[in-house]
Amino acid sequence: FKFFVINFIFSYFYFWYGGHEPHRSYEYGSSLKAGKKLSDIKEMPAFFPDNDIVRTDMLDYALEIEYFDSHVTEILDFLESKGELDNTIVIVTSDHGMPFPRAKSDEYDVSNHIPLAIMWGKNVKEPGRVIDEYVSLIDIAPTFFEAIGLNWEESGMHETPGTSLISFFKGAYKNFRDYVLIGK
């Protein structure tokens, strides 16, 4: 999972936190040792065998994500304690799907439909919305450019096929993109 921060108060700063936790080699059964139960998993992906071994592995993965989330909470709490949270674009995402067969490095929905959460204080109209549009990680750089007042098209980098997500913050995101290209 990745965590990006860009702040806009007196000067710009950029902070990137890349958590290793959700990657393999976490300890098998660590979730059970932490008090989780196999029944905590309400639904298994249809292409996985539904047995205790796979459920344990999925639960271990979820525990690692919880650990990553605790780091994100600490970072957000720190920004808030400094009075900078509302001035900061925060992006939480992943670079690929779960570290499981048919879910990482493959061309299936679960390997390419990754989490993306963005906050920017009062600069986001109607926070908490779920937006069901095709976006891509290539859109992050143009978003940062527009947020700091630079023109992506004039940057010399505009040949990278990204599009700013600022329109999402303003509530104007209908028909953003018809498709996202993936390949292996």
Query: How are the strands of the largest sheet arranged?
Result: 2-1-3-4
Shape: globular
Tally of contiguous helical segments: 5
Q: What is the strand tally?
A: 4
Helix and strand run: EEHHEHEHH
Q: How far apart are the first and last residues' alpha carbons, in Å?
A: 21 Å
Q: Could you name the ranges where pLDDT drops below 50 across 5 or more consecutive residues? A: none
Q: What is the radius of gyration?
A: 18 Å
Task: Classify the beta-strand content into a percent band.
Answer: 5-15%
**Proportion of helical residues:** 25-40%
What does this structure look like?
The chain is built from five helices and four strands. 14% of the residues are buried. It is an alpha+beta fold. Strand 1 and strand 2 form a beta hairpin.
Descriptive labels:
184 residues; alpha+beta; four-stranded antiparallel beta sheet; 4 strands; 27% helix; 12% strand
Give the gist of this structure:
27% of the residues lie in helices and 12% in strands.
Question: How are the elements arranged and paired?
Answer:
Blueprint: E1 2-7, E2 13-18, H1 30-33, H2 52-81, E3 88-93, H3 109-112, E4 116-119, H4 140-147, H5 166-169
Antiparallel strand pairs: 1-2, 1-3, 3-4
